[in-house]
Amino acid sequence: MPSTSTARLFGRGSWAETSRIADILRKETVGGALLLVAAAVALVWANSPWGGAYETLRDTRVGPASLHLDLTLGTWAADGLLAVFFFVAGLELKREFVAGDLREPRRAALPIAAAVGGMAAPALLFVLFNLGRDDDALRGWAIPSATDIAFALAVLAVISTHLPAALRTFLLTLAVVDDLLAIVVIAVFYTDDFSAGSLLLSLVPLAVFTVLVQRRVRSWWLLLPLAALTWVLVHESGVHATVAGVLLGFAVPVVRSAAAGGPEAGPGLAEHFEHRFRPISAGVAVPVFAFFSAGVAVGGLSGLTESVTDSVAVGITAGLVVGKAIGITGATWLVSRFTRAELDEALGWPDVVGLSLLGGIGFTVSLLITELAFGLGTPTYDHAKVGILSGTLLAALLATVVLRLRNRRYKRIHEDERADVDRDGIPDVYQRETVDDRADHRPDRDGAPPPGRAPGGSAEG
């Protein structure tokens, strides 16, 4: 009779995936620090005697008017630079579900459910706080639904917690799925003046781009103009231009073809693009967007009081702090309840709550949706930005308290995950096979590793 074991939530993945994701998170942590600096500079400048110069810079128009691209610098940051951010998110999500540990449905169920719960509960709370208003306040229902991975990782770096690899991996995957759901929400609910013709035309350069990358063409002078043309046509269609970034990311192949040596031949095109564009996304695109979007003139103490007590700001703050905690923790409990899976033996429910609070750190996508929902320069827009900032800071503080209280436990797990007694370059904990591990990573009949996972190295991406 075969052995059985209880399925585990937040169990360790493979060493190849863990080491790859650790490298990604290091880059995002640096990006998070730059994001914090950019947001702080914007806030200080906007509330200084020179605040008018900040607004003038943000509203300066650049670009060819004949192509309807005479956009403000703030709009270029939101529509153009964030397309790079979503391109990287599309690459990462596709890779996780095609070649990463999340290609196994039972591993993918938790972050997907948590992302859905972490978007639905905050949106519901926002709506409850703003029912009965006779303006367009309810258009902001999606603002508190996003998680900012770079900001969250910057908080982790500041509090110096030894968060286990499984929880860090879950946080990254949750944020990436969250970003994808957010871009779907933006495309469906925040599209004005839709032009079907332009959207259909955008499929032409997108199709050519897809054919080229599927043939492993890496020539920038071919791919970049096609990507830019796709972006322009999506922008012209009325659909938010960042959608083009996700579509282009999904077009890039993950697993090497047999002719290219197969998964065992090393990193492929998606991982190659990710290595090239993630530093641009984390180090340039997101911080510049934060600089142009985070600057809100609060108008002194009275203005700040008016902003934080507005129901829009209250709904956003409650959504980010309470809604995210309820949605992510509740979804995790439901997955546990209906799949009979148990938390990893080294973790407990306080860890899930701490991670859920960390998921309430919303910034980049929340600011983008705020602009789409209310438009630049309106009082509701400014109040919403104050709500995002206050909710993010409160969620970060509460997460810091919970995670720091658990840090002694995390330190023991961290030391276990780094121990390499046999000095083969792979921590011993990843070589202690359990029944679940053998089921997850069992070779196929020819003795090859699972698709997309090279032995002892990174998978095709």
From TrEMBL:
Pfam families: Na_H_antiport_1. It is found in: Cell inner membrane; Cell membrane. Residues 422-447 have a biased composition (Basic and acidic residues). Its main location: membrane. GO terms for molecular function: sodium:proton antiporter activity. The chain crosses the membrane at residues 29-47, 67-88, 108-129, 141-159, 171-190, 196-213, 220-235, 241-259, 280-301, 313-335, 347-374, 386-405. It is a multi-pass membrane protein. GO terms for biological process: regulation of pH. It comes from the Bacteria. InterPro entries: Na/H_antiporter_dom_sf (IPR023171), NhaA (IPR004670). Residues 422-461 are annotated as: Disordered. GO terms for cellular component: plasma membrane. Keywords: Antiport, Cell membrane, Ion transport, Membrane, Sodium, Sodium transport, Transmembrane, Transmembrane helix, Transport. It catalyses: Na(+)(in) + 2 H(+)(out) = Na(+)(out) + 2 H(+)(in). The keyword Ribonucleoprotein does not apply. Belongs to the NhaA Na(+)/H(+) (TC 2.A.33) antiporter family. Na(+)/H(+) antiporter that extrudes sodium in exchange for external protons. This is Na(+)/H(+) antiporter NhaA. It comes from Geodermatophilus poikilotrophus.
